[in-house]
Structures are given as C-alpha cells and as structure tokens.
Amino acid sequence: METILQGVLLGGLYGLFALGLSLMFGVMRLTNTAHGDFIILGSFATLSVISTGLTPIQSLFVTLPIAWLLGYALQRYVLNGTLGKDPLPSLVVTFGLSIVTQNFLLELFSADPRSIETDGFNTRGWALTESISIGVLPVMILVLAVSTTIFLQLLFKYTSIGRSFRAVSDDPEIAELMGLNSKKVYALATGLAFVLMSISGSLQGMRTTVSPSDGPMLLLFAFEAVIIGGMGSFWGTLAGAMLLGIAQQIGFRWDPGWGIWCGHMVFLLILILRPQGLFPKTRG
Amino acid sequence: MTQAEFQVIRSHPSSNALSLFAFLMVSIAASLPLWGESSWMREFVEIACYFIFAMMWNLLAGYGGMVSIGQQVFFGLGGYIMLICGNFLGVNPFIAILIGAVFAGLFAIPISVIAFRLQGGYFAIGTWVISEVARLSISNAQFVGGGSGTSLTALRGIDKATRESTTYWMALFCVVLSIWLVYLFLRSKQGLALLAIRDNEVAAQSQGIAVSRMKLAVYVVAAIGAGLAGALYFVGNLRISPDAAFSVNWSAFAIFMVVIGGIGRIEGPIIGALIFWALNKFFSDYGTWYLIGLGLLAIFTTIFFKQGLWGYVQQRWGWTLFPISRKLQTMGGR
C-alpha cells in the first residue's frame, strides 16, 4: 500500500518530466533527446540562482523567463531547420545538444551530486496512519503535475494558442495557408516545454540530488511514461508516469538493484502487449 | 532500339584506383607487427572497433533509415558472449569473437520484435531503453562480476607479443571483412532494394519489395557487426564492465563519425573514423571541452553540411571510392 502510494507520488514527478516531451512530440513530431539534460540544466540554474540568496519561489521569476526564451530561440533558430520527414537531423542535433549540455554542466559544477536547499521543506511529512507518512514536497509535486495536465488540456482545447498547436500538428502546410506561422508556433511550444522542464528540474533538485550525468536517465523515464500512456493524450502521459513510478517503487522494495529495471520491463511489456499505449487518443 | 545500345556503369576511375591502393595498404598494414610498436597495434585495434561499429550504424541509419541510439546493446552482448565463451567454455577467445558476433545477431531478432513497434525518434530512444535493460541485467549477474565487471582470463597463457599481434591481425581482418561485406551487400539486389526502401518505403513496397523482412535483415546484419566490434574491443582491452560495454558513448561516437564523414555512403564512416582518431589523439586531454567540441561539430555539420565531408567531396568532384550506384549510359549516337 505504502509502496503504491510512493509510486504514485514519484509518478507525479515523472509526469512533469514527460509532459514537456509529450508536448514537443505532439506539436512538431520532434523527439528531443536532450530533454533530460535540459531538465538537469533547469536544476542547476535554480541551484545557482538560489545561491545568490533568493528563495526557491523567487528564483522561478528568474529561471522561468530564461527557460522560455532559451526554448523559443533554440526552436526558432536551430531546431526548426532540422524538422522534416527524416528523423535523423533533429535526432543528431538534439543528441549533440545533450552531450554539450552535459559536459558544460560537468565543467561548471563538477560531477558531485548536489541538491537544492529548501530549509528542510523537502523532509517535512504528514503522518497518514501510524506507519504511513507522506512527504509534503512529493504531494505538492503531484498536485502540480495534475494541475499542469489540466492546464495543458484546457490550453489545447479552448485557447487560440492551443488551436494553433493542434493545427500545425495536424497539417503545418494547411495551417500556414490559414495564416499561421508554423515556425513561430513551434517556437512557442518549445518555449512552453522548456518552462515545464525548468520547473520539473528544480523540483527534482529539491526532492533528491542531481548530477550532470543524470539527464539521459530522466529522458528515458519521460519517454517511457509517454509511450506507456499512449501518444496524443496528456492524461495518458500522466497515467503512464504513475504506472512507471509504481513499477519502480515495487522493484526498489524487492531489491534496490532492480528498481529501474522493473520500470523498463513494464515499459517493454506494454510495448509488446499494447503498442498504442494505455490511453491513446487525439487531443481536443 | 536494341538493348546493346545501353550500358550500366558500376565503377568509376577513382574506385578502380582505390582497389589497387587498398590492396597495397592492407598488405603493408598486415606486416605491422613485424616492424611497428605495440602501442600502434593497440591504437589500431581500438580505432578499428570504433570504425566497425560506426560502419554498422551507418548501414542501419544511412541505408536502413533506422536511427538508433541503442546499438551499444549488441556491442556489449558481443563482448560478454565472447567473455563467457572464453572464460567458462574454454573457447579460444579469437574464435569467440566470431561467436560473440553471431550471437549478437541472434539476439537482434527478439529485440527487433520490440524495437520495431516504434518509429522515427521513438525507435531511437526505445533501443536505448533496451540497451539499458541489458546493462542493468548484466550489472546484477554476479557470475560475470556484476556491476564492477570482470577480466578476460582465457588469454592468460599466451605471451604478450603473440596476443597483441594476433589481436591486431584479427582487427585488421574484421575491418576488411566488414567493409567488403557491406560493399557487396549494397551492390547486390538486396542493396538496391534497401536503397529503394530508404528513399520511399511505400513506393518500394508497391514494387514488390518485402520491406519488413529487408529491415529485419539490415537490423540483424548491423547487430552482427556491432557484436563483432564489441567482442574485438574487449579482447584488446582484457577487461569488461557493464558500464563500459553498454555505454551510450559508443552510439554517440558512431553518430559523430558517420555524420561528419557523410551518412549513407561507405566512405563516410571511414573518413569519420580518421577524423575522430585525429581529434581524439590531439584533443582528448581537454576532457569535457573536447566532448563539447565534438557535440558542436556534429550539430554544425548536420545543419550546414547535411551530406557530411565525403558528400561534399562527391558533389564537388564526383569522386566515389565504393561505387554502389548504377548509372545508365547510352552507347548509340555518340
């Protein structure tokens, strides 16, 4: 019972990781292999900003606009040129970015794991029963993950930005004929994805330690959550993340060496038994 | 018009010159153990493994259209199977290299069942997950040393000079073999089918090409090659660990070599491996900055020189060392 609860809470964090990946793939069919490294970049950005004396909440006002600008500029001036039927250019470029980001962080912050100081907030917990207690931070992360999912779903369904996201996703050429600039829309989507990555990066840094080489692992978790959940649905992604979190927690409880392995196995099983994912549907 | 008025041209002056040059080079290279230093041989073995691995990545991505970041799974499996054959079954490690390669190919069949459910970018990351599963599984397998790895003890009885020159010859043999096999494969009917699939899968299928069988064949061949590289590498290295064997860096370096040299051409990984070797020799002491440079170079090449270095040369001067294309020339009226 406690394992499942912890798994759901962990899944909340993975959900936040995965929503950005899901967003970028959904809007422009771009597989961002540097996703995990950008999350870690977010952790270290928050860490640096906090070390100047700001509180974690205040630091968001610095890191989030930077993340948005970085994402927007990266998509507009670099990644847009790599899109197309052939997946190779975008994969090579994002994979190159992954290596650059990873080694840049290694150069600046060394390989030591660090965590973001929250004055003990990360260890505070609520006792549910005699034996089970849950952390305040993980619950907060879960609430944030659910509200972000609702936010994205509403954004895609009701706003004009969401409509343009869906339009360029369905057919960029027709969308351009209707007066949209698909390159700008792509850049907006990546900007939004980067904000999500930055938030989830700082949360990861508060919840546990981060080190520059963690990126690929987070990418794989995010990716698994997207595939388990089924492409094209933010709720599916969140559910996939929960399932992944639960699988890993059960594995960890059984034997710490097999925790992540169990998560991977659930992913492979879903891929064999239900390749379209658990909740496939088109958005909107 | 009769058929005799046409001729299919399959070679090029530069390619004919190359066959002679290559024969000379290989003969000189084969005699290296007689006059060279042992550090040269070690270096050659290492770069040979990188090259074979890159060659197979090129076959998979450049010709098969399957971009994978998980080819290291076959590299590691090749290495571990070689080790198990050598250490536990008493097979001569040099023969075990070939067994490792064959088994890597056999493993590719069940792996493809899972991996082929994903396409494009998701295939790339999916194969990476599979490789991680292999790494974590072997990390928990105590009989091969678990996470900290183990040594290849089967070569203990052989003296250093014999071991090094045999490893070197084996590496040279594997390099020639893999270039030759890929070249023949691409010149064959199957190779033509493969190019057709790469250019347009639906059109190829409509012409009667068995697309899925062809893709599986390429995946298996690429796995055999990657397994060969892995088994060879760990015979040269004498020590294996899951983190080294299943490291994503193998794929990263292969991607770098292929992209720099030129994807979808046999010359690409050869040029790429030479550049990589030179960069590695002179700049690898810079550690993180060196890797940042490699990453930026790969990004830059992908955006501005999509065809890579050899692609540029080919377009500019029309050179081709490994002619796999078919050119139709009209004989009559000239």
Describe the structure.
The complex is a heterodimer of chains A (284) and B (334). By secondary structure, chain A is an all-alpha fold. Chain A has one domain: ABC transporter involved in vitamin B12 uptake, BtuC, CATH 1.10.3470. In chain A, 72% of the residues lie in helices and 2% in strands. The two termini of chain B are 14 Å apart. With 334 residues, chain B is mostly helical. The longest helix of chain B is centred in the middle third of the chain and has 28 residues, at 160-187. In chain B, the strands form two sheets. In chain B, strands 1-4 form a two-stranded antiparallel sheet. At the A-B interface, helix 4, helix 9 and helix 11 of A face helix 6, helix 12 and helix 14 of B.
Q: Could you write a compact summary of the structure shown?
A:
Chain A is an all-alpha fold and 284 residues long. Helices cover 72% and strands 2% of the residues of chain A. Chain A has a two-stranded antiparallel ribbon.
Low-confidence stretches of chain A: none
CATH topology type of chain A: ABC transporter involved in vitamin B12 uptake, BtuC
| Secondary-structure element order of chain A, N to C | HHHHEEHHHHHHH
- Count of helical stretches of chain A: 11
Strand order of the largest sheet of chain A: 1-2
Using the CA coordinates, give the radius of gyration of chain A.
19 Å
Number of strands of chain A: 2
Report strand % of chain A: under 5%
Can you give the helix content of chain A as a percent range? over 70%
Query: Whole-Å distance between the termini of chain A?
Result: 35 Å
Shape of chain A from CA axes?
globular
Considering DSSP H and I runs of 4 or more, what fraction of the residues of chain B is helical? over 70%
How many domain regions of chain B?
Answer: 2
Per DSSP E runs of 2 or more residues, the count of β-strands of chain B stands at 4
**Second-tier CATH architecture of chain A:** Orthogonal Bundle
Assign the CATH class of chain A. Mainly Alpha
Spans of chain B of 5+ residues with little confidence (pLDDT < 50)?
none
- Shape field of chain B: globular
Q: Using only CA atoms, what is the Rg of chain B?
A: 21 Å
